[in-house]
Amino acid sequence: MKCSVLIFVLCTGIPASVGNVKLPCTEDMFHSNTNAYWACAAQFALQSNWFPSPIAGLFSYQIWNGFDGFWQNGAVLEPFVNFMVYANHTRYNTVVQKSQRSLYQLLEAYGPYPSFDDMGWYGLSYARIYEVQGGDDFLDSAVDIFNWAWETGWDKSNKCNGGFFFDNLQNAKQTITNVELFQLGAKLYRLRKDSTILEKVQQIHKYIFSNEIVDMKTHLVVDGIFMDNCSSNGVYGPSYNGGVFIGGLVEYYKVTEDIYYLELAKQIAEAIIETKSNNSQILTEYCDPNCNEDAMMFKGIFVRNLRYLMDALPSNDTATRNSYQKCLDTNVIAILELNMCNLNPISKCNITFQDGPPYYNVSGPVFSPNWNGPFTFGAPMQQTSAFDLFVSSIYPGTTCVGDLCSYDPSYPAPQPLTCGSHPCPKGEECCEYSPYTSYTCCAKGQKCTKQGICV
Ligand SMILES: *[C@@H]1O[C@H](CO)[C@@H](O)[C@H](O)[C@H]1NC(C)=O
Ligand SMILES: *[C@@H]1O[C@H](CO)[C@@H](O)[C@H](O)[C@H]1NC(C)=O
Ligand SMILES: *[C@@H]1O[C@H](CO)[C@@H](O)[C@H](O)[C@H]1NC(C)=O
Ligand SMILES: *[C@@H]1O[C@H](CO)[C@@H](O)[C@H](O)[C@H]1NC(C)=O
Ligand SMILES: *[C@@H]1O[C@H](CO)[C@@H](O)[C@H](O)[C@H]1NC(C)=O
Ligand SMILES: *[C@@H]1O[C@H](CO)[C@@H](O)[C@H](O)[C@H]1NC(C)=O
After folding, report:
1. How do residues 269-304 score in pLDDT, each as one tens digit?
2. In the record, which residues are listed under signal peptide (predicted)?
3. Domains in the chain, please, with CATH?
4. How far is the CA of 85 from the centre of ligand 1 (A)?
5. Would the pTM of this model clear 0.85, i.e. be above it?
């Protein structure tokens, strides 16, 4: 029987097991809040299938079974903590706690020249972990990442009022870097009250508001600027630019208490919901259904930040909050109906790996990149987007009861490896770089230069 979208959840009920695996998640533990249940199930499948990699090493906190994962591994930590906050539990707390790395260790894991946006995701997640759980190491690393990006990546010539370059090549200024570090800096100022951070945040603010980053007619956020004339480059594709800026405006509102920034965040949110879903309200990335491994994460990052806006709205603005909740619920129902694979046995779903079989038994439910469906294949990037969506849609006041609220399986610690350990998948050249004694696996078809860079 084919269920209509609206009665889908009633029609299938909530399974206590998925495929042939008994889930450590039940509907009861969240007092029948189904969005929290699906977040739990999606997170369990994410961890069972892709964490840690059979070749876990590289000082990275996790490697997703060969999937391009450095920035994504930073970005996925934030919904882990958000899930704890929104559903009041401590599941996978060890993964969160063990993710702490110093600036040096991160540079070593993704040397020799990580782009500033890639490092920014760790900054945002670490600041969020500190905000929720405390832990000075997390806050220190987040501050170090922010200051390192400022020292290494900010345009000190002051052309276009500065701005962060994309990477060491200094030939592009992408919006994502600037909105990430805007959000991070404002949050760090709120958490640490260090006025030198606030001065930098105000310069980033000036850069953003003087370079046509937001189109004030459509409220869409542009992907980057022309560096020679300081104007919008006209590319309005990726949804995470607006998403991360919404989160940045929420933080800046908390610092300044100026309602203008919250109103602007609402306008940007509504512009994205309208243009990215054509009234159906099912969010669609500009590149769906053929997004690359970066873009498969974007919609999740947008809804994550939409939730931060919902959390910051004044309590009398229930109309706005309800309309965003409805949008999230619509997308939840859509991906359950159109975009999920949950067969018995789960091995019948097309779940993909690059470094061989996972450490744990394969589990579901798994989701593919396009929230409009149909299901095509499971991989960790799109699973994280689905997880972000479920987490962001959990109703306020949800709590967890029972032993499963502290479910926290152990994982083997990652090993420091070298190219001598032959860690790279078939067809990918191993590339050692200095000044760190570490390596990276080049993409298929790339070669390693003497400087330790894949080209
Ligand atoms: C759960 O909620 C209680 C009551 O608000 C709070 O004291 C506790 O810290 C919360 N636990 C988690 C893990 O969020
Ligand atoms: C800025 O320069 C780009 C090319 O570098 C050009 O296409 C664009 O029209 C210019 N914009 C303005 C506002 O001058
Ligand atoms: C919305 O509709 C327009 C016009 O048909 C189309 O070009 C665009 O790709 C659609 N966008 C989405 C997100 O489906
Ligand atoms: C909420 O309350 C504030 C302060 O009293 C008021 O300025 C604002 O217009 C109210 N907003 C709504 C949506 O009612
Ligand atoms: C994997 O599944 C097999 C067969 O169902 C079971 O015996 C085994 O304990 C499971 N392994 C883990 C790590 O859960
Ligand atoms: C499984 O997904 C991969 C990655 O998209 C694809 O190349 C492959 O054709 C799919 N296999 C099946 C049986 O659909």
Report:
1. 999 999 999 778 899 999 999 999 999 999 999 999
2. 1-19
3. 27-415 (1.50.10.20), 422-454 (no CATH)
4. 8
5. yes
